[in-house]
């Protein structure tokens, strides 16, 4: 069992050590190069490229329809995702996506801990971008720390001003791109540029600009440590079989300067591979010393792995003193036992993957059987049924029709499962025909009268005779209370 420290500050205090940098003040991460840094740059470019470009992509849906590939049309309560159009009645699909995404996060956690946090979380991606800007303007870690302690010169003021100006530019672009997902992007861009956009658009841009600037520029690691719920969950869902970034202390301790370690090894005395250079701490965006043990705030970004691998290469020791490894393997190494290997396929990961596939399958099935004509009915409540003078029974229903197609259509309303029924639809044309414009919704009152002896299940059917498309909804035909 692994105890995850709430913070290194508490542990440092117990050991009488100075607090880690992250607990003392602002974390100032050093630049690092290596395999995981390259992967993170790749992820950053892909995520930002996707975020800024998606609302600009066009998708031809025919005349009178929005031609934006990804659009959350709040005004018409519809969402467009390339060839897919979602209506409020498709909430089950949205729920399916959310449940599958949650299971996906749990699956990733079962495989490799907080991998999402280290590579794909927007907080990580935007913080990386803001740190890149800071580094380009103010220099790497040492230079930034020196300048922060130094006098306020004109050059320093210009640097700080340039940094904040660029941060604000990125924040405005982020907020602007966010607003583009909700209305036609080219129209809104022109409106924003000319001051003709609606006030709500300026409000959305301002809110996202502010949150991006504060969270990515100023709050940074504090968000990952204290604001995000994941670290709190991590205590409960930590999986010793999942990959986590870990310091292999059985190999690294006792930590010694490289020269002394060489001397001790020459004499046959034990010497660890860690040279106590603190490079792993300097590059950490959270300010963690991973050598203290697993930490709930660690985002599994692998930058300390890159830093330590670089040090190991320079002192001609094998790489991997800090590595992605299952925690049970680290404990086995400590006990001198063979380290279990990380396994992709385990009952837990298979069960989670099966759950995601089942949800995906159900969603595909729902999409495949979905028609572009929807009908929903609500039975009258009071009175639920009326006995007519000729002995027949009358029931009333509020029927809502939605034409999700791009063409105008006429549908015929009828009731099934009720022999001898006479149906009238208030507001309909002759033959209970209802005209629906493309994308239109209409609610009408349907009244059915029949010589019924018992209550029965019925179906209200909307049929488009021109296309043959039909949609039905289950309801009941009730008898009056005796
Ligand atoms: S980078 Fe490697 S060698 Fe240097 S302190 Fe960290 S674990 Fe030790
Ligand atoms: S300890 Fe290593 S993996 Fe964890 S956040 Fe810091 S640099 Fe990233």
Explain this structure.
- The protein has helices at 8-15, 21-24, 35-53, 91-112, 115-119, 122-138, 141-149, 154-180, 185-194, 199-219, 221-227, 230-237, 249-252, 258-266, 279-282, 303-314, 327-334, 347-369; strands at residues 70-73, 78-81, 84-86, 243-247, 322-326, 373-379, 386-387, 393-403, 409-416, 422-426, 433-436, 441-450, 456-463, 470-477.
- With 482 residues, it is α+β, with helices and mostly antiparallel strands.
- The protein has a domain at 373-477: Immunoglobulin-like (Sandwich).
- Strands 6, 7, 8, 10 and 12 form a 5-stranded antiparallel sheet that branches. Strands 11-9-13-14 form a 4-stranded antiparallel sheet, with no helix packed on it. Strands 1-2-3 form a 3-stranded antiparallel sheet, with no helix packed on it.
- The radius of gyration is 32 Å and the shape is elongated.
- The N and C termini lie far apart (68 Å).
What would a concise description of this structure say?
45% of the residues lie in helices and 17% in strands.
Task: Please outline the helices and strands.
Layout: H1 8-15, H2 21-24, H3 35-53, E1 70-73, E2 78-81, E3 84-86, H4 91-112, H5 115-119, H6 122-138, H7 141-149, H8 154-180, H9 185-194, H10 199-219, H11 221-227, H12 230-237, E4 243-247, H13 249-252, H14 258-266, H15 279-282, H16 303-314, E5 322-326, H17 327-334, H18 347-369, E6 373-379, E7 386-387, E8 393-403, E9 409-416, E10 422-426, E11 433-436, E12 441-450, E13 456-463, E14 470-477
Antiparallel strand pairs: 1-2, 2-3, 4-5, 6-8, 7-8, 8-12, 9-11, 9-13, 10-12, 13-14
Helix pairs in contact: 3-6, 4-18, 6-8, 6-10, 8-10
Residues 247, 252, 274-280, 291, 307-308, 311, 321-322 line the site of one iron/sulfur cluster.
